[in-house]
User: What shape does this take?
Amino acid sequence: MSTAGTIDRPLTHDPKKQAPMKAATREPTGSATRDFTTAGAHTSRQNRTREMQLIPEAMARAHMHERLREAEAQRPADRLLAARRMQRRAERASRRARRALAMAVMQ
Assistant: This one.
């Protein structure tokens, strides 16, 4: 069953294995208008598509840098809060020690 394929159902979808296209016999060679190249438009369209695909990545990178900047700005405030907590803890320990000393002296 080696029947040739039709236009709707080609024998193979690989263009290299298909029969080459024959020139139309109705119009003489060179009578058609020259094809204009769309390479520049295609390339710019590809670049725009590539740039558009990279937009979410750039936005994520900017978001990450913003979060890092916020974290860097928050660090001194966190250190200050920790220092104040430790100072209060040290003051409480100092008061307990004084009270314990005073109780020991009184007895």
In short: DSSP finds one helix and no strands in the chain. The first helix runs from residue 39 to 106. The chain has a mean pLDDT of 79. The two ends are 117 Å apart (CA to CA).
